[in-house]
Each structure stands twice: as structure tokens, then as C-alpha cells.
Amino acid sequence: MILETLLDFLTVSELGSVLVEGLAKAALYVMIASGLTLIFGLMGVLNFAHGSLTMVGAYLGGLVMVLTVSQATGTVARLALFFVAIVAVFGALTLLGGAIETSIIRPLYDRPPIYQILLTFGLTLVVDELVRIVLSLYGMQPLSDWQAALATKPQFLREPVALGPVDVRWLAVFEIFVGALTVVAIWAFLTKTRYGLYIRAGSEDTEMASALGIDVRRVFTVVFALGIGLAGAAGTLLMWDQVWGASVPLAAETLLPAFIVVIVGGLGTFRGTVAASLVVGLTDAVMTWWFVNYVRFTGLPELMLFLVLVVTLIVRPQGLFGVEEVGGH
Amino acid sequence: MTTVLYFGLFAMSFDFISGYTGYLSFGHAAFYGTGAYTVILVANGLVPLFPTSTPFMISLLVGGVFAVVLAVVIGLVSFRLSGVYFAMITLGFAQVLYIFVRGWDYVAANPRDGPSVGGTHPAGFEIGIPGVDQLNLAIGVLAGEEATVLGHTLGSTAVSYYMVGLVALGCYFAMQRILHSPFGRVMLAIRENEERAIAIGYNTYLYKLGAFAISGFFGAIAGGLFAGFRRSATPESSFYFLTTGDALLASIIGGFGTLAGPLYGHLFDETVREFLSKSGQGGGLLPYLRAGLGDQALATPILGDMTLGVLIDTLLNGHASLYVGIVFVLFVLYVPDGLLGTVRTRVGGTLADAARDRFRDDHSTPERTEGDDE
Q: Among residues of chain A, what percentage have pLDDT more than 90?
């Protein structure tokens, strides 16, 4: 039976569509996880609130899209307004991230790192509940009204397209495009700008960087703010995808894959995060394919993702691209 | 309030490993879930070798043993890591179990909703000494017994409360005993400076593994009590990672690294929740405000067509997690030692020591024995 499955899988059309789906998932994962990895790499803070802030980004993004994108009719205008929405949410959450860092995370740098984990964990409770309160104040039910945001998607993104023998969803291609764009942007920011240099220096050795005259505390604030902004942008991207959508449990649904990606890649390395999201995205796609076609075990893809995490930690505790000494965090 | 007892016990078992060795076990819910599921599966006759007639206390122990095995398996690979990596690998294991249990149709007809005690075990679970009928009292929602003690009749709720409390108390003393033994001292040494502990010649790996297994055992007992009292369990309320989060909350608020702290922490938590939720049996803030303000005040519009009443309702109805979260953040920021830890710092030792000193005749400062700071 396994052989039969394998033969089925190895046809061009199946392999091709699984590959595209996997890349699309990888793109979403890299969007969700890159902020987390930036924050950890520099500050050593494992931000438990990342999922919740992604969820806030999803709601905000949905709101902006319903307000603006639905006004436009042309495909090009809709796509352009979608990017406006992403930028707007990115900006709003960057400000929020900066406020969070300066107000409640800053007092904790002198304490053991566990307190920062605890604090961000508490923050998720507060954020999730605040979102629930706002939703009920405005009578917005978690899902039904947010179909409106889904509906702002241009027509062509809903239809599959045949590329040779392979059936591909346009949305998947679009997600891959946005994901790749984000990766290139972060990479350029880290390697080509002065601030990126500060961040890389701070990740290597915080004390040395501050001795050289870099205001590390301010770099912390900027990185935390940008990381949260990226979480918001990721949330906005999720709003066009049928599988995700906006809901309060989205917080946990995005946090756990983000953790998996960040740990598998090696805490704090951006390169590792990109590689790991490819691994995790492709695993997810293959397992989803297997589940849909052959296996009747609900949650098989999820199960496999956590097994990837566990196996990675057993075989290579520092992750794919991690450095040994980071394990001391 | 019975939930305070069994969940407090779970939080204590979490604190036992995380607060005393410094290894954040973020997948502790795995043990809680193991205990809970074992008890229900035994009652439904789904565990081989254990018929449905197995006494509750035995099935509790069976769950505990399963958890010990599980803890050793998880611990063998996990304790090669430390810090965030340890937290993440334990989280990974627990989530694997959670997803597995959620999809495994052996445990229940609808595994997503979790198992509940079926018709094969109609009676309430009995806490007591197996085989000695007079010493057993049934617990469980709607299935508890009444009991007459020294002329007072206790209702079924009260009986459940005291019996669950009895087990929790026993577990507390057992853990307390372990922490005060040389074994517990090594756990503290690992938390304070693991390299030094290794340098003195302790095989810290074995000590950590042992502590993890003990902690898993008591976590499973807590889960078993939970399942025995509720007569059902869901994957969300037992194996999910936020269950561990609740234990973490209780530990931090009560005092990380003080064994009894998590119990007080969870009591505090529950009190806040009870006070701020509408269904609060002890009155709660919402009914009080409704009654106190009167209809006219409640109908005052604030923003557009939103009235004061609607606002209060929205802010207070079922959103206790918000306030618990805020309290938690404030504790992390300003009361890092937690309730009990702060009290101990103030009093200068454990409360029992301080009280004993106060009531003794000589008011001279007693000499503190070494390692009194627990």
C-alpha cells in the first residue's frame, strides 16, 4: 500500500502541486516566524505574544481591507490596496511593538531570561482577551463577518490555473511572491543598511556592540517593534487564505508553527528560519496530501510538524543553522 | 472550589520541577492528561489488565506510573538540552501527545470531545483505602456521597472537596519531604549552579531525570483527581499546552520555587475569576454593580448607542482572563517572588518558623539552620 501511495505521489502533477502548496506554506511560515527570530536573535527574548499579535494583525488587516480594498473594482487596484493594507498594519503594529518594548519589557533586561518569557506569556492573555472584548463590543462574531475580508480577494486569486500538467492555485503563487519579497526585504535590511549592521553586531555580542558606541537599548526597541510589525504583516496575508481567516484561537495556531520554525532553524538565525520554513512547509504539504488521499488520522500534518521539532532537537539541538553557544539562553 | 485543590496540586508538581531545578517544563500538561485519561479509560475498561472494577486509588497510581514512564522517556532526550530548548522540546512532546489523543478513536467515540465515564462504571469514584469499605467516600459531580462526621452532615460537594483535598495534602507532604531530603538539596544546587553541582561530583542528569519523573507522577495524580471529580476529560482541558500555561500562572503568582505557593496562586486566580465572572456563586462584581447602580444609571448612554450597562456587561462578563493576565504581568514586573515568596522574604523564613519563634518565650533571634530558605 505504501508503495502504491509512493507511486501515486511521484507523478508530475501530484509532485508539482504539492511542491507549490509546500512553498506557499513555507512563505506563510517564514512571514510568521521571521519577526520572532529577529527578536530572539538580538534580545534573547522568546516572544510568546507573537501569535496574539499576528492575530491582531489579521483583524486589523481584515478591517483595512474591508474598508479600502472592497471599494476598488479592478484587479490591479485591489492588489495595490492589499499592499497598502499590509504596509498600514505593519506600521500600526510597529508602533504598538515599540510601545510594548519600552513600557513593559525594558524593565526586565536585568533579570533572568525566564521572566521575559513569562511576561510575554502574560501579554498573550491580555491581548487575546482585549480582542475578544472589542469584538463583542462591536458585535463582530469571530468568523462570519470576516468572510467580507476574504471576499475582497480579486477574482483571479480564487481560480486554479494549469501550468502544464500541474494544477496550481493562484493564491499559492501570490503567497510565495509575498513571502519571497519579505525575505529579500529583511535580508537587504540586515545586510545593506547601517541599522542592520547594528542588529547583526548586537546579536553577535551585545556588550561589545555597546562598547563600540551603539545604543543597544534603542536597537532593542527598533528590533522588537519591527518584529511585531512583521507579525502584523503576516496576519494580514493570512486573511486572504481560506484555511486561516481571523479568529482569537489564531493566536495559538500561528504561535506554535512559528516556534517550530524558529527552533528547527536555530534560534536567532534568519538564514535558519528561511531554511526551516521550507522544511516545515514542505513537510506540512506532503502530510496534508497524504492525509487527504490516504490516511484517516485527523491532525496528521500537525503531528508531523511537532515530530520534526522533537527530532531536530534530539539530533541537532542547536537547530539547522544555530550556533552551539546560543543554547545557553 | 474543588478545582483549586486538584489544579493546585498540578501547579505544585509543575513548580516541583520548574521552580526547584530551574528547568521550565512547558509540556507538563502531558502528565496531567495521562493521569486524567488513565482514570477514565480504566473506568471504561479500556486499559488492559485493569477491569472496570479497579478501585479509583489504584487507577490513580496506575496513571502515576504511566506518567513516570512517560517522564523518563521524555526526560532521557530532553535533559540533554537546557533553557529555552528544554522548554520547547517538552512542549513539542506534549503537543504530539495532544494531537495524537485528539485523533485517536480508541479513547472515545469522538476523540475531539474527549472521553467520559460510561455506563460500565455508574458509581462515583471512591477515595480511600481500597478494600476497606468504611474508609471510602465517593467523589464526582452529582455522584458524590454524603457523609456524617461527628454529628455534622457533609453534602456531596463538601465530601468531594475534603476527599480531593486529602489526596492533594498527602501529595504535598510527599513532595515537601522529597524537597527537604538530600535529593531536594541537589535539585536546588542544579537550579543555582549546575556546573558546580557537576563539579562536586553529582550526576545531575540522573537527578534531573528523577525529579522529572517524581513531578510527572504527582502531575498525573492531579489529572486523575480532575478526571475523577469531573467524570470526563477533554484534550483541551488536559493535554493542551495552555493547561501548562495555567499552572505557570499559578506558580508565578503564588511564588516560583515555593512548593505551597502555586496552590495559593491558583486560589488567587480562581478568586479573581469567580469575582469577575457572571456566574460567580459568591455574588461577584457584575450582579453587585447591576443591583447597586439601578436601571436608570445602567441605561445612561456613553458612546453612541452603547449604554453603561452594556459596557459593564461586556467588560465583566466572562472576560476574567484579561484581569488574570494583567495581574500576572504586574506580578512578573513588580512582585517577582510571588505571594508566598514575598511573604517569606518579609518574615525572614518560612511562616511556620516565624510563628514558632514568635510564640516561644525567648525572643532572641534563633539561629537559622543551613538551607532554611526553602
A: 24
Q: Do A309 and B248 touch (CB under 8 A)?
A: no
Q: Which amino acid is at A309?
A: L
Q: How many CB atoms lie within 10 A of CB B55?
A: 17
CB A232 within 8 A of CB A90: yes
Q: Å from A134 to nearest chain B CA? A: 9
Rounded to 10 degrees, what is the CA torsion of B324, B329, B335, B338?
Answer: 50
Integer Cα distance of B145 and B53 in angstroms = 18
Q: Which of B160, B34, B137 is nearest to B94 (CA)?
A: B34
CA distance A27 to A183: 9
- The number of beta carbons lying within 10 Å of the beta carbon of residue B275 is 17
Q: Does A123 contact B at CB distance below 8 Å?
A: yes
- The predicted-structure confidence for A155-178, as pLDDT tens digits, reads as follows 777 777 777 777 788 888 888 999
Q: If you count them, how many residues does chain B have?
A: 374
Q: What are the residues whose beta carbons fall under 8 Å from the beta carbon of B222, sequence distance 6 or more?
A: B6, B7, B9, B10, B13, B32, B35, B168, B171
Length of chain A: 329
Can you say whether the dihedral through the CA atoms of B162, B163, B168, B169 is positive or negative?
positive
Q: How many CB pairs under 8 A join A and B?
A: 117
> Mean of the pLDDT values across residues B21-46?
90
Q: Look up the ipTM and state it.
A: 0.83
Q: What does DSSP say about strands B301-303 and B152-154: parallel, antiparallel, or unpaired?
A: unpaired
Q: Is A299 on the interface with B (CB under 8 A)?
A: yes
B99 closest CB neighbour out of A113, A118, A302? A302
User: Which residue from A114, A122, A313 is facing B89, i.e. has the nearest CB?
Assistant: A313
Taking the C-alpha atoms of residue B195 and residue B203, their distance in angstroms, rounded to an integer, is 11
User: Exposure pattern of A212-243 as b/e (b: 16+ CB <10 Å)?
Assistant: eebebeebbbbbbbbbbbbbbbbbbbbbbbee
Name the pTM for this structure.
Answer: 0.85
**Element housing B154 (H / E):** strand B152-154
The answer to whether B213 and B13 are in contact (CB under 8 A) is no
Whether residues B325 and A124 touch (CB distance < 8 A) is answered with yes
Phi, then psi, of B152 in degrees rounded to 5: -95, 135
Q: Distance (Å, rounded) from C-alpha A219 to C-alpha B114? A: 47
Query: What residues in B contact A114, CB-CB < 8 Å?
Result: 24
Q: What angle do CA A130, A89, A265 make, to 5 degrees?
A: 90
Span A179-228, pLDDT tens digits: 999 999 999 998 898 888 888 888 878 888 888 888 888 888 999 999 99
Of B99, B306, B314, the CB nearest to A133: B314
Nearest to B252 among A118, A129, A132 (CB): A118
